[in-house]
Write a structure and sequence with these properties.
Layout (H helix, E strand, L loop, with lengths): L6 H12 L13 E2 H11 L14 H9 L10 E2 L1 H13 L5 H15 L8 H9 L2 H20 L8 H40 L1
Antiparallel strand pairs: 1-2
Helix pairs in contact: 1-7, 7-8
Length: 201
């Protein structure tokens, strides 16, 4: 990893910029069979794969989401555009939250807004949430750059270039990890408080 001339940081940022959300207009307006769903997701989320052989959403995963009440059951083995939107939300959440936590926030989401029986539908919610993506990405990238610069200032007294490079990298990982940890704690608190509010009603 070549940190000294910031090439590695530029590579990381290029990788982050490639991550993009699925435009709801790209989701077919016709119902899809399971194989079509997994193929669509694999194609549109491939930039977020860590390894090329990774499977983003498998049939087993999707069936388990239905069994765990994260996803409404398909109609005659076909999945609607709303199913697809829910699966995209699940995909992003499953890397940081437990199935139980996702269930806590999805239950009211599906009860109130799934099926077109409310004044606002899932597609509109999806668009509203993701419209700030570009602004969020810019802010996140600036924060990553700040953390990177700060990590390069650590362990100044280490003589060995190899040791310093490793320890700088470790510092950078710790700074990013602590940020993720704090935000995860905040998300879990929000979910717990929302669940308590629902119980009171």
């Amino acid at each position: 990893m070549e940190f000294r001339d910031d090439k590695y940081l530029k590579t990381l940022i290029r990788g982050m910029k490639k991550l993009d959300y699925i435009d709801p207009d790209d989701i077919p307006n016709i119902d899809l069979y399971m194989d079509q769903v997994t193929t669509f997701m694999d194609e549109h989320l491939k930039s977020s794969k860590r390894y090329s052989e990774d499977k983003l959403l498998t049939k087993t995963m999707i069936n388990n989401y239905t069994k765990n009440n994260l996803l409404p059951a398909p109609n005659k083995k076909k999945y609607t555009k709303e199913h697809m939107l829910m699966l995209i939300f699940i995909y992003y959440f499953k890397n940081i939250l437990s199935i139980n936590d996702i269930q806590q926030i999805f239950n009211p989401l599906t009860e109130k807004y799934y099926g077109g029986n409310s004044e606002i539908g899932l597609e509109q919610i999806y668009k509203e949430v993701f419209q700030y993506e570009e602004e969020q990405m810019d802010n996140l990238l600036k924060d990553v750059i700040r953390k990177y610069r700060k990590s390069q200032e650590t362990f100044k007294d280490i003589k060995s270039p190899e040791d310093k490079e490793f320890l700088n990298t470790f510092s950078f990982i710790c700074m990013l990890g602590f940020d993720v940890y704090l935000k995860k704690q905040m998300i879990e608190k929000l979910i717990d408080d929302a669940a308590k509010d629902m119980e009171k009603k």
